[in-house]
Write the structure tokens for this entry.
Amino acid sequence: MSNVAAKIGLVTTIPVEVLFAAGLVPVDLNNIFITAPDPAKLVEQAELEGFPRNTCSWVKGIYTAALRHNIGTVIAVMRGDCSNNEAMAEVLRSKGVEIVPFSFPYPRDRRFLVAEIERLMDRFGTNWDEVEATKRQLDEVRALALRLDELTWQTGNVTGFENHIWSVSCSDFNGDPALFQQQLGDLLRQKESISRDDQDGQASIRLGFVGVPPIVTDLYEHVEGLGARVVFNEIQRQFAMPGPAERDVAQMYLDYTYPYDFEGRLADIEAEVSRRRVDALIHYVQSFCHHQIQDIILRQRIKVPILTLEGDRPGPLDARSRMRLEAFVEMCRQRAVARSLK
């Protein structure tokens, strides 16, 4: 038997404690897709195999990533993520990939979620004691990611993109929590040692980013080039599981907002907009994604300016999106000047 731990593909955040407790290596297929040398080619390959043009590029990218990286087993979230996961999983199964289904309950239901986690434990050969012990180890790593998030909005020593990349990586801790903890700890010490007058940062436009992580590659760079700062990454922050560390595994994943009703996400967004003094929001929506419809509710509920940006395929922002961003940031700047004169 090989001493190399088996890799298990993920299509989104799931109770990863089960896999680490079982001695396995989780691999977030979203991350290896979007960080590929040419992620657009992965999308094109799926289309050559028959995936429709009007299917989310994330779905097509993670499908090809699973095959290219020879991932033999994929945990496919059938409820609580993408509505196309089930069909994609069936195509992967036809290619010889083992599919392990997992669902988040809708509405939230602890008994249902516990049963789903126990099915995972049975499949991968672990138990609650081992899973809870693993959670306590991962709590230390998540605490570092949440500290990085604090530095993003409290001091400005951490950029919105740094916040984004480390937070999304908490879905699988890059397959090695110990190394991830060491690298993140080193970065935090570097960031916390920076002594700076943050008056300029406090005066800049403070933006929140809500919605799924973007497929476009230069959004944060462009925003910060306009003199604005992203001080809140909604879904990315959820990957680090904010909340009391003393929760058990089931409660932690019940508190995780993304898989459930939009009301839970709205409550989190409202609280963080206030706490972080967010001036305006960018709502990123992915082409052909059912989450686009939630933009209606977001605009009814959240009382700061909102720019909705749609992305389709991996690559830089298109010219129209850049112009809309520039106009939006300028509008926010003029609002801030007007408030200061009152």
Residues 128-154 form the longest helix (27 residues).
